[in-house]
Design brief:
The complex is a heterodimer. By secondary structure, chain A is α/β, with parallel strands linked by helices. Chain A has 10 helices and 27 strands. Chain B is globular. Classes of the chains: A alpha/beta, B mainly alpha.
């Protein structure tokens, strides 16, 4: 947080200029945020939540967004539950966060919730209410990691760490209309939500279960100017006939490796947009943004300097230290979020080539082919360069000779099932293999390629990878 | 295509892709002398699993002895196909 900036999210609404639009658009209703200056979406019960650790669990993103603005500076702690949080994890999450209040749009929540006596309903509508005095203390924002298995980790942020990557835009600009494929309760989505609220813009929210095409139509109808998602979100969007119904000024990718294939594809479809890919994680925060439309990032970013964000490479893995990182985990006394010097280990492996660092994959996602390591993402990046490929998933298959071998599932462009498509796929398969053989060591080249109509994407917008 | 044909065809295909000089194929050919390396065999097994629909190496819970000659290899697949 910069000096002079409001200490709470609600404070940003107070300072918002008259040019601000500040609308939150859900799938079937919207809210004018400036009404929150003298209004509430919590039925006037905000005062009861003062100083409490609040579990915010709402189906509706609009209701959740309004509650977030109200709760910041009032609650001691807000636990942001994404829609896909598994019910059986609720008791452990509530225990770790010492929750003593629940804010929800559901009549009944889930296991562990009945013991909490303070239960406040959040709504997607704003009714008049007297403004509440904001405390000086900083509310802790608790984000849950999107681990595919096991209990999510509870990551402690503050409004200061969350807004630190947001740089003020020029005031002369027309306020942005933001949108994101993400859930705003996830780090990537929350960044966009905060950019909208602190920048006097508006935000088109995604809606659970809504087909990508419908979401794009909605975003297009609201004149979206800035839109973010993971590369997998974007690959899904580009497969939709509605992709051209939006014409954003700014496209942002984060959460997964942005390979050259997706950057080029976006450029072709959105010739007027600035396309940037950001490196961010729930724990490390936003580290940097790359705007030159090339995969990877300039090696000059990793330099011994005391900048706002410091990057270093340890054993091939990217580590980050900045005021944007989370401070700690909740309920995990033995689990350090950062090392003694404050560096967060991202688990993302990078390699330098010609003055540029490229992401090669997750440290824990390596396929072992007879003792030689293969990062699936590195192979996918090569496959995705083929003009007939939307997306691909590289995975391990058990093998009697080498322990494991690399195979790939590929989603081709074009209508599947026709004999024409099958013939085209055969050509594509040969071309993909030739490209892989040119670009990769032999053990990294997929032994088999299967053409599929779609690939599973997790609730957090990432390609679903199953460990072999 | 018979199992035998599928196997011979994969040997030739993979040798060509991996730029290996394949020895003349006969049932007595010792696989280690075929000119193919372990990666080539790994690929052949993976491809045969896709084209034939099974992998005899994974079918058995117990340790499988890897076939020594091309004839062994073909019989191994033919037995599994029955």
């Amino acid at each position: 947080m910069q000096p002079g900036e409001p200490g709470s999210l609600c404070g940003w609404l107070t300072t918002a200029g008259e040019h601000s639009t500040l609308f939150l658009w859900g799938a079937d209703r919207s809210a004018a945020l400036l009404a929150l200056r003298r209004g509430t979406s919590l039925a006037g019960r905000l005062g009861q939540l003062r100083g409490r650790s609040v579990l915010l669990i709402a189906k509706d993103q609009l209701a959740a967004g309004l509650a977030l603005i109200e709760l910041d500076g009032i609650a001691r702690r807000i636990v942001l539950c994404p829609l896909d949080l598994r019910e059986e994890h609720l008791p452990a999450v509530m225990k770790a966060a010492e929750c003593d209040a629940i804010v929800s749009d559901r009549a009944a929540t889930g296991p562990g919730c009945s013991e909490v006596t303070c239960y406040v309903t959040c709504t997607p509508t704003i009714s008049p209410a007297e403004p509440q005095l904001r405390d000086d203390h900083q509310t802790e924002w608790i984000l849950l990691t999107s681990g595919t298995t096991g209990l999510p980790k509870l990551v402690v942020h503050s409004l200061a760490s969350l807004t630190a990557p947001i740089k003020p835009g020029t005031s002369a600009q027309v306020p942005a209309v933001w949108s994101t494929f993400y859930d705003i309760r996830r780090y990537g989505g929350l960044q966009i939500f905060l950019r909208a609220v602190t920048g006097g813009g508006s935000l088109v929210l995604s809606s659970p279960g809504e087909p990508t095409g419908d979401f794009l139509l909605r975003a297009g109808a609201r004149g979206v100017t800035h839109i973010s998602g993971t590369p997998s979100h974007w690959r899904g969007a580009l497969m939709s006939p509605m992709a051209r119904r939006i014409s954003p000024r700014y496209i942002r990718l984060s959460g997964e490796i942005a390979d050259q294939g997706i950057l080029d594809h976006l450029r072709a479809v959105y010739p007027k947009a600035d396309i940037a890919h950001a490196f961010a994680s729930t724990e490390a925060g936003v580290a940097f943004e790359v705007g030159d439309e090339r995969a990877g990032f300039p090696a000059s970013l990793i330099a011994p300097r005391g900048g706002e964000v410091e990057l270093r490479v340890e054993d091939g893995t990217l580590q980050i230290r900045s005021g944007r990182t989370a401070s700690r985990y909740l309920g995990r006394p033995d689990d350090c979020l950062a090392d003694a010097n404050g560096f967060v280990d991202t688990g993302d492996m990078i390699a330098e080539r010609d003055g540029r660092y490229y992401f090669i994959g997750r440290r824990d996602g390596v396929i072992n082919v007879g003792g030689r390591k293969v990062h699936p993402e590195e192979v996918e990046a090569v496959i995705n360069r083929h003009p007939s490929v939307y997306m691909s998933l590289v995975k391990a298959r058990k093998n009697p000779m080498t322990g494991a071998i690399v195979v790939a599932d590929v989603v081709p462009i074009g209508r599947p099932g026709t004999s024409d498509a099958r013939a085209r796929n055969e050509i594509t398969r040969d071309e993909i293999l030739q490209t892989c053989r040119r670009a990769l060591a032999p053990y990294k080249v997929p032994a088999a390629i299967r053409f599929v109509t779609s690939l599973a994407v997790t609730a957090s917008g990432k390609l679903a990878r199953r460990q072999c | 295509m018979t199992v035998r044909h599928a196997i011979i065809s994969e040997f030739e295909q993979v040798a060509s892709e991996q730029a290996k000089k394949l020895a003349p194929l006969s049932d007595n050919l010792v696989l280690l002398d075929s000119g193919l390396d372990s990666l080539c065999f790994a690929i052949i097994v993976a491809r045969l699993e896709d084209s034939l629909g099974f992998d005899p190496f994974s079918a058995d819970e117990e340790e499988v002895d890897f076939p020594v000659t091309l004839g062994d290899f073909i019989r191994f697949y033919e037995n599994a196909a029955r």
